[in-house]
Amino acid sequence: MGTESEDNSVVKEGFLVKRGHVVHNWRVRWFVLKLDRLVYYKYESGKRDSCHRGTIPLNNCKITCPYLEYENRPLVLKLQTSTSEEHFLEACTREERDEWATAIGAAVKNLNPNDAQTPSPSQNKSPKSLQLHNVNLSQVVDSMYDVHTGIRLCSHVEQGSSYTNCFSGSAVVDWLVCNKMALTRVEAVTLASTLLDEGSLRPIGIRSADALRSAALGEQFLDDSTALYSISQSFQKRGSVKAEKSLSAVELSGKVVKRGYLFKQGHKVKNWKVRLFVLRAEPGFLHYYDPSKDDITPVGGISLRGCLVSALDDNGIPTGVKGKVQGNLFKIITQTDTHYYIQAPTHKERMDWIQAIRLVT
Q1: How far apart are CA 80 and CA 198, in angstroms?
Q2: Under the phi-then-psi rule, with left for phi > 0, alpha for psi from -120 to 50, and beta for the rest, what region is 48?
Q3: β-pairing, 76-80 with 86-90?
Q4: Domain range for residue 152?
C-alpha cells in the first residue's frame, strides 16, 4: 500500500474519507497528491486498484480548512475546483487534515505563483497556529472531555439566563495550565483561541459570543470567570467517552494515544475493510470504527492487557491471512487467544502502531 511511486511528482499519499457526488455517502479512498492534481483509488480486499477512480484538478482550487458543517465529522476539509465542483474529504486527525491542506495549498500556489488571491488553509491564517504547531489539538480535546480528569462541566447563570454543561473561560485556562498543556496563562489563552477558532470549543452566552464576533484575532477567547464556553457537539461524538454510553465507561476512559486508518481482516467473512482505529491507554484498548458511517459507536474493541503484537512476514501470505494483501501486516493475539490481522498503509506506520500498542499493553 505504501510503496514509493515511480511517478516523481507524488507529493503526499494516504487514506481520506470522501463524500460521494451523486449519493452523499462517505467512502474511504487512497489519495495521491501530485503537482497539479489529486487522484484517488479504491481498495478491494486489501489491494489497491491499478486504475484511479477520480481526479481533482488543483489549478485555481480553493481550500476551506477546517470545514465544520458536518456535525459528526469535525475533521473535514473542502476543495472547490475552478469549475465550482466541491469535494469533501475527512482525515483521521487534525494534524493529518492540516498536513493535507498545507500540501494541497502549496501545490495550488505553485500552479498560480502570481495569484495573490490564492486562498491558503484557514488554520494558517494567524501567528498562533505557528506557535502551536507541535500541539496535538486532538489529544487536548480528548483530555478535556475525559470523564475522570477532564474539565468539569457546570451550570452557570449569565445576565439572568441559565446554561448547563459549560465552563468559564478562566476555568479553561486554569485547566490547561494545571494539566501542563500550557506553561503560562497567555499560552493557555492562545491554545484556547485555537480550539475556539477550529470549532472544538463554542461560546455560550452573550459575553463570549460578542468577543468571538467583534474582538481582534487572538483576543476572541476570554480568560474571564463570566465568559462561558462548552465543547462543541461534533467533538462530543466520534471517539469521545460520554457519547458512547452503550460501551463500558472504563473501557473508553483511557487517554487517546494514537488514531489512524488501517485495514482489518474480518473474523467470519475473511474480507479486508478500512477502519478508523483509536488506541487508548490506562486501560489499554484498541477500538475500531466504520469511517463510512456517522455512527459514533465503535464496531469493536480489542483489550490490550497481556496481548502479543508482532509484525508478519511480507514474503508470501502468512497463515491465517486471506486475500491478495499488499503487505505491512501485523497481528494481535489477545489473552483469550483471539487473533486479529491488521494491515498498515506503509512499513513505517506498521512499526509505529506496533510500538504504540506495546507501550500500552
Answers
A1: 20
A2: beta
A3: antiparallel
A4: 131-236
